[in-house]
Amino acid sequence: MASNQTSVHDAKFALSVNNMEQQMSLELEKEEFDYSKRSQWLRAAVLGASDGLVSTASLMMGVGAVKQDIKAMILTGFAGLVAGACSMAIGEFVSVHSQLDIQVAQLKRDKRRVVDTEEEKEGDDENLPNPVQAAAASALAFSTGAMVPLLAASFIRQYKVRVAVIVAAVSMALVLFGWLGAALGRAPAARSSLRVLVGGWLAMALTFGLTKLIGSSGL
């Protein structure tokens, strides 16, 4: 009798452990799935913000290298914001829409060969990329990044102070964007922030130096 009770207890314990393992496995799979679904909008948002920040700041630095007027720098930055946001949105829309067309065509070919259940079809449709979402994320992120150097330079009349403030503000924003992208994607934060920061510095320095060189040559 005691042996029967022990075996029943062991069976219940083994069943409970098995259920817990299955639950943990499902939770891990769900977590991995959530991170994979982030990749589409995260890539577009981080790329757009970094591009808007670096390109607008570089344009303003380049114009500032040959013309120290605050109005010229602000107008140049604003034009870069509008043009860049439109360019990013259109490019992202076309790129993601091409990816969507390829995946839809592949799904149609697969469904001709295999009869899927309704549940499987819904899951496939949910994994399809969204071109409008990607385009909107790119445009919004680009505009957000481009506003940093514009706001930094808007209220500073002295040229040298203005340039220093732009560089400082852009550097802090680059570190922030790099850290944010790494944190959301579970990547090394320090390496990501440093890579973005060095790239931004290099872009601004090259634009400033080359524009200064061409401007001083009298072309």
From TrEMBL:
<dbReference type="GO" id="GO:0005381">
    <property type="term" value="F:iron ion transmembrane transporter activity"/>
</dbReference>
<keyword id="KW-1133">Transmembrane helix</keyword>
<protein>
    <recommendedName>
        <fullName>Vacuolar iron transporter</fullName>
    </recommendedName>
</protein>
<comment type="similarity">
    <text>Belongs to the CCC1 family.</text>
</comment>
<feature type="transmembrane region" description="Helical">
    <location>
        <begin position="72"/>
        <end position="90"/>
    </location>
</feature>
<dbReference type="GO" id="GO:0140315">
    <property type="term" value="F:iron ion sequestering activity"/>
</dbReference>
<feature type="transmembrane region" description="Helical">
    <location>
        <begin position="134"/>
        <end position="156"/>
    </location>
</feature>
<keyword id="KW-0812">Transmembrane</keyword>
<dbReference type="GO" id="GO:0005774">
    <property type="term" value="C:vacuolar membrane"/>
</dbReference>
<feature type="transmembrane region" description="Helical">
    <location>
        <begin position="163"/>
        <end position="184"/>
    </location>
</feature>
<keyword id="KW-0926">Vacuole</keyword>
<keyword id="KW-0813">Transport</keyword>
<keyword id="KW-0408">Iron</keyword>
<keyword id="KW-0410">Iron transport</keyword>
<dbReference type="GO" id="GO:0005384">
    <property type="term" value="F:manganese ion transmembrane transporter activity"/>
</dbReference>
<dbReference type="GO" id="GO:0030026">
    <property type="term" value="P:intracellular manganese ion homeostasis"/>
</dbReference>
<comment type="function">
    <text>Vacuolar Fe(2+) uptake transporter.</text>
</comment>
<feature type="transmembrane region" description="Helical">
    <location>
        <begin position="196"/>
        <end position="215"/>
    </location>
</feature>
<dbReference type="InterPro" id="IPR008217">
    <property type="entry name" value="Ccc1_fam"/>
</dbReference>
<keyword id="KW-0472">Membrane</keyword>
<feature type="transmembrane region" description="Helical">
    <location>
        <begin position="41"/>
        <end position="60"/>
    </location>
</feature>
<dbReference type="Pfam" id="PF01988">
    <property type="entry name" value="VIT1"/>
</dbReference>
<keyword id="KW-0406">Ion transport</keyword>
